[in-house]
């Protein structure tokens, strides 16, 4: 793990693999940290790629942020991190909120994005009901902490049948959620409530795109992934059986196979 001070905070990140390899930036979702990507990091590095997996501001070991953090703030942080690492363009992948941050990077910094990997995410702006829900949840986390929330949502973060079938995975996901500082989680929730609509951004993408979704995701179901695929018809859509909202940890073998195939056939083949 390495850290750097940028844009008024300190970001902690892992930078692994060959410096000559294809750079892949992996963005975790809410309320997790960079360890979410451990199975993908191992597989990507073994395939010769370079992996940058940061803790977003307010999450993991990075600096805690109170108030409101917009998706554009996260995206600007990550572009600054790429600058710090002298990386001009990277494959940018994210899950859930991380996928929306990846879309924000495409919207605001398209010249830095070599390809997109969008896992279990959605493109439209938040609804009025969704805004109210996220702001109420932010208030609740600040008042109560993360434990009760983590216990409530574990059966949605993972497919409910995987909570008991995969106790090690469920334990890891619970630990990440419980360890998140409520101030960081609340700030991200408030910012995410104000996110823009990314559908026009996606419709204009000409670089390679991989869309991945767990077959039993209840937060961003297969229909959401199909809607993104309709916007980006040249994209590759992969549905991961036996997984919910976090297929990268629930079915890492299937997820990694789709990711590595995409990188070899759609990204490096274009170079």
UniProtKB/TrEMBL annotation:
Gene3D superfamilies: alpha/beta hydrolase. Residues 23-250 form the AB hydrolase-1 domain. GO terms for molecular function: hydrolase activity. InterPro entries: AB_hydrolase_1 (IPR000073), AB_hydrolase_fold (IPR029058), AB_hydrolase_sf (IPR050266), Epox_hydrolase-like (IPR000639). This is Alpha/beta hydrolase. Keywords: Hydrolase. Pfam families: Abhydrolase_1. The keyword Cytoplasm does not apply. One of its GO terms (cellular component) is membrane.
């Amino acid at each position: 793990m390495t850290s750097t001070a940028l844009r008024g905070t300190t970001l902690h990140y892992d930078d692994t693999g060959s410096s000559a390899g294809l750079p892949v930036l992996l963005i975790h979702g809410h309320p997790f940290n960079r360890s979410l990507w451990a199975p993908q990091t191992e597989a990507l590095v073994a395939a010769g790629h370079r992996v940058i997996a940061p803790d977003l501001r307010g999450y993991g070991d990075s600096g805690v942020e109170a108030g409101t953090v917009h998706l554009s703030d996260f995206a600007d942080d990550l572009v600054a991190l790429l600058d710090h690492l002298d990386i001009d363009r990277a494959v940018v992948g994210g899950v859930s909120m991380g996928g929306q941050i990846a879309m924000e990077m495409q919207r605001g910094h398209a010249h830095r994005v070599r390809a997109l990997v969008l896992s279990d995410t959605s493109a439209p702006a938040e609804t009025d009901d969704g805004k109210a829900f996220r702001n109420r949840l932010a208030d609740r986390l600040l008042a109560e902490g993360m434990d009760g929330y983590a216990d409530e949502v574990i059966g949605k973060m993972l497919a409910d049948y995987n909570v008991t079938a995969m106790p090690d995975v469920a334990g890891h996901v619970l630990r990440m959620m419980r360890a998140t500082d409520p101030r960081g989680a609340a700030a991200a929730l408030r910012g995410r409530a104000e996110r823009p609509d990314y559908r026009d951004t996606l419709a204009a993408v000409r670089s390679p795109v991989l869309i991945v979704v767990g077959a039993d995701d209840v937060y961003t179901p297969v229909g959401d992934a199909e809607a993104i695929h309709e916007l980006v018809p040249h994209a590759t859509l992969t549905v991961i059986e036996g997984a919910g909202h976090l297929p990268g940890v629930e079915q890492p073998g299937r997820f990694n196979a789709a990711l590595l195939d995409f990188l070899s056939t759609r990204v490096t083949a274009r170079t």
